[in-house]
Amino acid sequence: MRWxxxxxxxxxxxxxxFAPLAVIFAQALARGFAAAVxxxxxxxxxxxxxxxLTVAAISVPLNVVFGLAAAWxxxxxxxxxxxxxxxxxxxxxxxxxxxxxxxxxxxxGANTTLGAWLVASGYPIVFALPGIALATMFVTFPFVAxxxxxxxxxxxxxxxxxxxxxxxxxxxxxxxVTLPNIRWALLYGxxxxxxxxxxxxGAVAVVSGKIRGKTATMPITIEMLYNEYLxxxxxxxxxxxxxxxxLTLALxxxxxxxxxxxxxxxxxx
Length: 269
Prior knowledge:
The protein is mainly α. Helices cover 82% and strands 0% of the residues.
């Protein structure tokens, strides 16, 4: 039974993960390495890569702040409506990203009062970087909070209360007691949010307008290139995105191994 289950799991992984990755890299190199690199040197491709990294650099740190605040508030305080707050944090998991993007368009679009005022003031949200960042922040918001909440619940409040009793300030307690205890969960959440931010398509497709060379992120650019039968360029961009995802997975695995080693060392002592 053990070997059967292992074989089924490996077959599923091969079909759903390894085979598509192999196809992506094979198609990207179908006309040689030079052709793949040349397609990535295109101005629109470089702009898509820069935009994707910029959006991730904006959304992930903000979600770290929001996730830390939400996890701290939920785990360290008792209040009415805690279950409602937890449900709201999970909302991006249940709402379609396309619906989230459409809500942003209905709120900040040029046809709305607020959106028209922002456009007239020179600060457009929809079809611009701010809208893409907001859409990405919405779909990635739960990752950090959801990684932190179980860890902080398990740790309880005793250590923080002891530090406060000994005269430590709130910030000192957070930096010297809370943060070291949650650093691994925080790093996991950051990596997952970053991977999701770089690969988001649905919400970004709605709010970006898919303007080539301006608001087209890497996933959107891949779709546009593939629809234009530029397969080498599309798969080369997909290979870059897949490489970033694999790098994120490798970092997450390394962190998990290091965390397990530290836990084992602590138990031995």
